Amino acid sequence: MAKKGLLERLAAGPVIGDGGFVFALEKRGYVKAGPWTPEAAVENPEAVRQLHREFLRAGSDVMQAFTFYASEDKLVNRGNKAGQKIGVEAINREAAKLAKEVANEGGALTLGGLSQCPSYLTGLGETKVKEEFRKQVKVFVDEDLDFLLCEYFEHVEEIEWAIQVCKETNKAVAANMCIGPDGDMHGVSAAECAIRMARAGADVVGINCHFDPFVCLEAMKKMKAGLDAAGLKPYLMVQPLAFHTPDAGRQGFIDLPEFPFALEGRICTRWDMHRFAREAWEIGVRYIGGCCGFEPYHIRAVAEELAEERGKKPEGSEKHDMWGAGLRMHTKPWVRARANRHYWEHLHPASGRPYCAGMSRPDNWGMTAGHKDLQQHSTETTAEEMKRVMDFKKA
Length: 395
Prior knowledge:
The structure is a single chain. Helices cover 42% and strands 9% of the residues. By secondary structure, the protein is an alpha/beta fold. It has an 8-stranded parallel sheet with strand order 1-8-7-6-5-4-3-2. Helix 4 (45-58) runs parallel beside helix 14 (296-305) and helix 9 (126-142) packs across helix 10. It is globular and about 60 Å long.
């Protein structure tokens, strides 16, 4: 029997995405923080394969090829050697093959993803930026991935270009911006961003990364209102962070002083993800997954919350009784007393850090495309450039 495609599945019910490969693999020692590029697909394929399998077992309906930041200009940016040593074609192709391999183990869909690229930040223009995207899309089409995703874009103009390149194929196209309720980095509102993504041809529109589940849902409500007012009806998609970010500004979590190495105190619980999944479903979001910080247990919580709508629980639920019911088997009676939904739904977890503030002050440097310190180049960051940013920080 032929596998149902993305749009057919969305018409029938929820589609559960996967989680955050970049952060998960950085913690496991396979991705370098800073460039955040996915050469692990070639260098350490078993690590990537295993994480795909864990998300599949947790309930993911889609295996997203590990192609985040895999444009050629990013692979050679600021001293990164991955583009020279391995190459854009090899990284994207091996990532696609790994996604297909694991997807075939559980009837999941596959996707190839594009992300914002240094050529846009440097102001090299539409033709150059689209050339970067086409290098990746060609591989995704050659490998016959099921659909394409434009994700992690801060500027609506750039994601429009990415969508237009993807629409040159016959694949379904989803599009996510890494924005919050305040809109993109050039001040375009969340509602207008959604309208422009839909009019560029995206079949699915939404938000990923930069903000926590509940901030993202506030932005999704604005997107939906704008789309409804414009008479546009794409499917809605959300893949947020698994970190609480109520104190983040327009730039999201990368402005927080804890980014990227001290975010653990902000991690969402599995119970937060139950709430997130239900609220997302109720406002009309049909593709629900996660981005940075999302581990398989977070995705399992999403899949369990929507088990009735999906008609099944994930395979990983074999080792996880809903709402802590497995704690009835614990040896300690006070832990057995926690084996109920009310306890976990109403718990306010302590951080264990008595001298830590509840909120941080974002850096809010206000830089975006066109600023001289966002000009990108293939050579390593110079001492002069580092002095300039350190002086700016002190000021």
